[in-house]
Amino acid sequence: MTRTIPPGTKLVLASHNPGKLREILDMLAPFGVTVVSAAALGLPEPEETEDSFAGNAKLKALAAARASGLPALSDDSGFCVAALDGAPGVVSALWAGLGKDFAPAMARVHREMADSTDDRAWFISVLCLAWPDGHTECFEGRVDGTAVWPPRGAHGFGYDPMFLPDGAALTYGEMDQREKHATSHRARAFALLVKACFAR
Ligand code: IMP
Question: Which atom number of ligand 1 is nearest to the Cα of residue 93?
Fold first, then answer.
């Protein structure tokens, strides 16, 4: 049975990615929960050993819930390119290297797409809520679009400047971030989570 998060709940945000933290904090703001980040609790960042977004999202949320004794929310997400059979996908963060520099990661996507005529790309986010007893609830959101080159815009994070959502004139990197937050893969996953777990 689906578990709900009542107002007043203390929730751990199981992410060490500042871009995601900013977006998820914005999304949680209307729901009256107290949010503490995994970093603020001194929790380590678990190694992402699964080969699916849902697997890694669960692993991160469960690790934080068990270590803190509190419900925890994680996001596992990535940028997927049709011409690369869905890569970088679950290893999107790894392509940026230890320095977490996404300029070379975007250049690698462009280089590996070579002269492919298929520029379809998509973002996926799986949000997972986990409780200390091992119960989990996961929700997936996806936005389709195209990979553009050169990257455009300085907003957002990660691969945002090279993603043009279908029907949009601006990349995620050029968009007013409120617009991205309202329509993104993460926002879509969050809408499902709200419907299931913040039912009031
Ligand atoms: P992970 O979920 O920690 O494995 O990292 C996901 C990676 O995917 C991030 O480091 C970004 O590179 C990329 N990513 C996920 N969501 C977004 C987004 O909304 N914009 C840009 N890049 C994203």
Answer: 10
In the three-class reduction of DSSP (H, G, I as helix; E, B as strand; rest coil), residue 32 is classed as coil
CATH number belonging to domain 10-197: 3.90.950.10
Predicted TM-score of the model (pTM): 0.95
Closest-CA residue, ligand 1 atom 9, reads: 93
> How would DSSP label each residue in 41-69?
TT--------SSHHHHHHHHHHHHHHHHT
pLDDT digits (tens, 9 = 90+) for 150-170: 999 999 999 999 999 999 999
Examine the residue annotation and report whether 75 is marked as an active-site residue of this protein.
no
Q: Is the CB of 74 under 6 A from ligand 1?
A: no
In tens, the pLDDT along 87-119 reads: 999 999 999 999 999 999 999 999 999 989 999
Q: Where are the domains of the chain?
A: 10-197
* 149 ligand 1 Cβ < 6 A: no
Report the nearest atom of ligand 1 relative to the CA of 105. Answer: 12
Cβ neighbors of 40 (< 8 A, separation 6 or more) are: none
158 ligand 1 Cβ < 6 A: yes
